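Notebook B, p. 112. Complex prediction, attempt 2.
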Amino acid sequence: MLTIKDLKASVEGKDILKGLNLDIKPGEIHAIMGPNGAGKSTLGNVLAGRDDYEVTNGSAELEGTNLLDMEAEERARLGLFLAFQYPVEIPGVSNLEFLKASVDSVRAAQGKDALDSVTFLKLARAKCKLVNLDQSFLKRGVNEGFSGGEKKRNEIMQMMLLEPKICILDETDSGLDIDALQVVAEGVNSLRDPNRSFIIVTHYQRLLDYIVPDFVHVLANGKIVKSGGKELALELEEKGYAWLEDAAENGAD
Amino acid sequence: MTDFHNGLLAVKSDESNSSLSAITALNKSGAESFLQQEIPTRKTEAWKFTSLFNFTSNEEGYGRLAETHSAAGLDGITTIPALDAQRLVFVNGQYSEELSSNTAHKNVVRFSQANEAQQAIIADNLGTAIEQEKHIFAALNNAITTDGVLVHIEKNEQLKTNIQITHITTPQAKPFTVAARLLIVLETGATATVVEHFASNDDEQNCFVNAITEVKVGDNARLNHYRLQLMQEGSIQMGGVHIDLGRDANYDSFQLGLGAKIVRNDINLNHNVGGSHCEIVGVYLPQNKQLIDFHSNIEHKVANCTTNEVFRGIMADKSKAVFNGRIHIHPDAQKTLAGLSNKNLLLSNDATINTKPELEIYADDVRCAHGATIAQLDEQARFYLQSRGISAAEADVMLSFGFINELLENLELDAIRNLIRPLLAQRFGRDEELMKHIG
């Protein structure tokens, strides 16, 4: 599904990703954990196509197509979805209009007609219900005045509407209470599919009690320094990251 | 005295004199004041950025009234859907019985139909909120007005019905003048909502609408005032609103300039007694070669008054907008709270904005904030939209739409929001159907 090879990226001249490799097969869930500043969010942003990040080396192929040469919108149309750590507030642009424009764009790329507004409204209302957001959120400005949990649920709703192939959740669990966390997890689990893969970027093991990953990777100092099964998350919870960071630095030199 | 002056004054003949002596007296002083004022040029400070060339250079001149006033086919643009309103409609300056509400309303009357008590109110108030020597087109309106509309709300009356005053212009063989005059008087403790609405039915307009509105808000009274300029490309409109606020009065206003050949609006507000508040929100959206100019001047003459003024504009193509926001805080106006914000987006390299906030503060215990910006669209917001499959170009359109739409969300009248939002959607190529589900 997604193959990342020797990916290096920098922000304002500072190297953040220093040769990252990852191979994700259809249907798999990969958790990426690591200390602050390890490059976790950079990975999601680089894959999604944010301009501020400069890719200096490597490739990231989604079903054989190199994403890194594409505009952000082209990547999204191809089936990549990033759930933002900090979803942006856009006053004046209604959530409904935004969601429809988004779904229409992705459908157009798949050769499908745009949905008429009534059909779309029904669909959006149904998804709202699934993530426990009141329908009034459709009329409000995008994320405008939403609480942290509401913003994250709005992200999951978008994911449900767009039905992407690869979903990247960038610290979606940070700052959530347990109820919101469960809604997010249920949303992800409901989308699990043999043809859809997930990258769950998180700082905390807690989310992985609800979304059980197939693999856990530790990202430290711009590289994956350790990979394992779901039990690795528990080990990290217990021991912290310091032992791996040390290992990474020793290994790098 | 020039041909320009005489030409414009010529629209009023002696035969068209009003039977009300208050109006003939106003005509006389207006004409005198108008003749003393030179045609504004780029050297006139208040007109520095607004050229009247397209107005003054018209060879045929605008000094005549319209020849036809047919209401045929105008129902669509006259109607504001879902607005429960007592409606008075004028076609090319002439009252249209056909398009207006079919019953009389005690709070709204044309000057020419006023009863004795209403005539007294007109005599007491007409022209009193205007400094005509500072506003050449207000002086002109004083000079040529022969009829107009009085909205009068009695003491403590809470008027539930909205009042809609609509001026429609239609194509005429030659350029023509429409003198529109509205006087709104709210007595102590009264409340009302008035919607002024200007529209035209053809792209090839050659009208000059000289529209002056006077507003007198009495003690503890509250007016909600909408002024919507939805004219076509060829129209010219000069005028504005002159407001006097009593003690603890509230003036809440929304101004929309969708665009025309030249639009100049002067908004002059006087905090006269104390404790009054005004809220003025405005939007201007010129395109092609249109020019829109909003000049506002808020006089804080006394203590404990507040002003909140927010204007936003988007200039497309080769259009131009001018915004001048003056807030004058007199020495006695302690404890004034005043805010002025003007944000602008330029959609093309050929579009222009001249914006100037002017705070003049002569009192020491006041809080004032102002800002005028030429904004860029938010990069983070653009990326967020793109990351959901929306192209950069469409994202920009959505964000521009949102920049204005944000101001519509606070409008009290749903019907006005629902009128404007599809127009805005059309302007920005948004889905009009979908907009109906948002409101």
